[in-house]
Amino acid sequence: xxxxxxxxxxxxxxxxxxxxxxxxxxxxxxxxxxxxxxxxxxxxxxxxxxxxxxxxxxxxxxxxxxxxxxxxxxxxxxxxxxxxxxxxxxxxxxxxxxxxxxxxxxxxxxxxxxxxxxxxxxxxxxxxxxxxxxxxxxxxxxxxxxxxxxxxxxxxxxxxxxxxxxxxxxxxxxxxxxxxxxxxxxxxxxxxxxxxxxxxxxxxxxxxxxxxxxxxxxxxx
Length: 221
Hints:
Elements: E1 3-8, H1 12-23, E2 28-34, H2 37-47, E3 51-55, H3 63-72, E4 80-85, H4 91-99, E5 103-106, H5 111-122, H6 131-144, H7 160-170, H8 175-182, H9 186-200, H10 205-214
Parallel strand pairs: 1-2, 1-3, 3-4, 4-5
Helix pairs in contact: 2-3, 3-4, 4-10, 7-9, 7-10, 8-9
Keywords: DNA-binding, Phosphoprotein, Transcription, Transcription regulation
Domain Response regulatory: 4-122
Protein name: Response regulator transcription factor
């Protein structure tokens, strides 16, 4: 089965360019597009795509509000949102992840990175591995200041190993990298990750990163 994608961007050239690139992949189908946030929400509800490529700046309703509306609908299976951003709007990144977006991608990213991002997000993972992603998260949280860390009593429910796994997730490590770091089997890491998500009521790795930074468990830099 192919991955279905909805592209939401107010620039026709972006929609057409991304659409042509993704449609050329044998495992991806572009099922629709939207030129503003309201249309993105309407089309997402109608088409139920696997992934929505969501621009941050759009008329009528911005990408953040559209993302909030789509995720609040509670689709099953879930609709994943991949935010499209540029360097001049870094401040939106943290809020997008807080809302439950599965990650974000720079608009000028290479074609192969866009294709990979769609596949990663469709698979239920968060797009947190690229160096630029870690840097942007760190920049935004550093500006918020460590003094604003929110106490998170739920962290007390984690075992020492689960807290360690959460820290490594927040640093952008994959399950394979965590397994190598802790000298355990990858399946063991997957079990720990599942328990962390269940205990903290997290949807995915993106939310895990946000919580780790907000609680002060991980300090940027």
